[in-house]
């Protein structure tokens, strides 16, 4: 271990500087994540089944029509897509984790559900005028860095039919993001990040100008190999979200509160849902 490297790692990274490794598509970590998604007792990676169903029933009441075409971005193992397919909608799920999509495909086949799944990065989405509703659930919008956020919003706008709706949840300004900040370490004999032994150095740092909190996880393996995972979590005021989506052409933008009663991870008050509408085609 070269301590000089750790002096560099321990200094404050410039805002949005990427890590060296990614988590969701990592062959080993994605297996641990799948187990977390599928644990019905915790609100991590995916929310609990009762919360998922109440969220989708709320959406059915306010936006869905019979036969709607729905795209779930970051669908994980298909917990939302399966419920929607069971209600008769035409459903597509996209996720970067081959492991989650493999599970979702097998599960849909066993249940006789005709869901289309794609293993891909949603930054590469190319669809045009294809969906009535696009979902991005579990505050995933807020972990996109600005450049990726712009790309994803452009992709979603293009992929929606005129009159279609983009539904996403985000941490709002009740969430005490500025209070984040700590450093801790752990030593494990194989666990979430790696199969073999590793030292884990974790920290959170707040960047006030961008209202973003960095969660950094530095994983040092027995052979000295080091992986740095960085997650940039934003909290937004409603007017900021409105500006972001309107810049991409969305015309209507409604906010909905307290959609997630009894959530363990983030309180219901801290999460708002946004429904952003692509304008209907005008003219004769
Ligand atoms: C917090 S989980 C939420 C999963 C699902 N929406 C749910 O609530 O059950 C985030 C999901 O987004 C996926 N993901 C992350 N970045 C992605 C990207 N760039 N393209 C496609 N999927 C991505 C991850 O693999 C993971 O399944």
Give keywords.
single chain; alpha/beta; Rossmann fold; 2 domains; 4-stranded antiparallel sheet; 7 helices; 11 strands; globular; binds S-adenosylmethionine
Mind sketching the topology for me?
Blueprint: H1 3-10, H2 29-38, H3 49-62, E1 69-73, H4 79-86, E2 90-95, H5 98-111, E3 116-119, E4 131-136, H6 146-159, E5 160-171, E6 182-189, E7 197-207, E8 212-221, E9 226-234, H7 238-246, E10 250-257, E11 271-278
Parallel strand pairs: 1-2, 1-4, 2-3, 4-5
Antiparallel strand pairs: 5-11, 6-7, 7-8, 8-9, 10-11
Please characterize this protein's 3D structure:
By secondary structure, this protein is of the alpha/beta class. The protein has two domains: 3-22 and 176-233, no CATH class; 38-175 and 235-278, Vaccinia Virus protein VP39 (Rossmann fold, 3-Layer(aba) Sandwich), CATH 3.40.50. Helices cover 27% and strands 31% of the residues. It contains seven helices and eleven strands. A seven-stranded mixed beta sheet has the order 3-2-1-4-5-11-10, sandwiched between helices. A four-stranded antiparallel beta sheet has the order 6-7-8-9, with no helix packed on it. Helix 3 (49-62) crosses helix 4 (79-86). It is globular, with a radius of gyration of 20 Å. Bound molecules: S-adenosylmethionine (SAM). S-adenosylmethionine binds at residues 24, 45-46, 74-76, 79, 94-97, 100, 121-123, 137-138, 140. The site of S-adenosylmethionine (SAM) has 18 residues, from strand 2.
How do the SSEs run, as a string of H and E? HHHEHEHEEHEEEEEHEE
Range of strand content: 25-35%
- Looking at the structure, what is the overall shape? globular
- Domain module count: 2
Helix proportion:
25-40%
Instruction: Describe the main β-sheet briefly.
Output: 7 strands, mixed
Mean pLDDT: 93
Q: Please report the distance between the alpha carbons of the first and last residues.
A: 69 Å
Q: What fold name stands as the CATH topology of the largest domain?
A: Rossmann fold
Helix tally?
Answer: 7
Arrangement of strands in the largest sheet: 3-2-1-4-5-11-10
Please tell me how large the radius of gyration is. 20 Å
Number of strands: 11
What is the name of the CATH architecture of the largest domain? 3-Layer(aba) Sandwich
* Small molecules in complex: S-adenosylmethionine
Task: State the fourth-level CATH superfamily of the largest domain.
Answer: Vaccinia Virus protein VP39
Unreliable residue stretches:
none
Secondary structure category: alpha/beta
Which CATH class of the largest domain applies here? Alpha Beta
